[in-house]
Amino acid sequence: MGVDAVEPDVVATKDGILVIRHENEISGTTDVEDHPEFADRKTTKRIDGQPLTGWFTEDFTWDELATLRVRERLPEVRPSSASFDDAQPVLRLVDLLDLVRAGSSEHGREIGVVLEVKHATYFASMGLDLAPLIARDLRAAGWADGQLPLMIESFESTILAQLREEGIAASYIYLIEATGRPYDQLVAHGRQAATYKATVTPRGLDGLVGRVDGISVNKRMLLARGNTIVEDAHARGLKVFTWTARPENAFLAAEFRGEGGRQAYGDYESEWAVIARSGIDGVFVDHPDLGVAFFRS
């Protein structure tokens, strides 16, 4: 579809295998609920300080997860995508890396990977340090030496620093939410931890120079009138990306929503135009065909 890269989210299994899932809680993205042999694995945990009930990757071995099939996370918004439910297995990180490399060869151009690391502080608290696991898989798949286009991103700066120390050649991108504080910093510093909003002020950006190569901000921050995030970051040599540009009313800012309910497309082009005019270096989309057509036009 012409994309520059794919963005997998990675979490870990009980036996230290990295798998591709949006979250470590998998009831919404797999058929685990339909497996009676795993019924007793349902539990309530605190993930990044928030209570969550379901089934969690860290309570399964890879061999167990491999018996599951994946499902669309938002079936009410994307029924066409949900039509493929239960047809494909969960992928490991190494599987995805091999697929992207094969896709690059097939299409005759480089396709990159933007690897999002999820819940690193949480996993470390149970003895699953993600940095060495990620380094292991990247090296095994030939993605660690800078020969292939790799970006690594996380909402936690600690894991980014750890992966730099592991010697992984990549661009490191700090993910920025519109509200709240990074969980790793909250654990380390309590309420004294800087908020995400403070991180994208000029003073906060000064503190990122030399530590990361760029930031990737919630699109709401770029849609806020009068913001200077892109200009301020570029002035400090930092790249700026944003997420996630989606056409459905469910995800558009209120002024760009149209008729037809949550799954109908609103005036996404007007919203995306605001984002494009901000001068960003890249944008994450869920509909690559629409994204390529709009942002490269």
User: How would you sum up the global shape?
Assistant: globular
CATH superfamily of the domain at 132-295: Phosphatidylinositol (PI) phosphodiesterase
CATH class wording of the domain at 132-295: Alpha Beta
SSE string, helices as H and strands as E: EEEEEHHHEHHEHEHHHEHHEHEH
Instruction: Tell how many strands the DSSP assignment holds.
Output: 11
- Please tell me the overall pLDDT: 97
Which regions contain 5 or more consecutive residues with pLDDT less than 50?
A: none
Distance between the termini: 14 Å
Overall helicity: 25-40%
CATH topology of the domain at 132-295: TIM Barrel
Proportion of strand residues: 15-25%
Cα radius of gyration in angstroms: 19 Å
Using the 3D structure, state the CATH architecture of the domain at 132-295: Alpha-Beta Barrel
Largest sheet: 9 strands, mixed
Structural class category: alpha/beta
DSSP helix count? 13
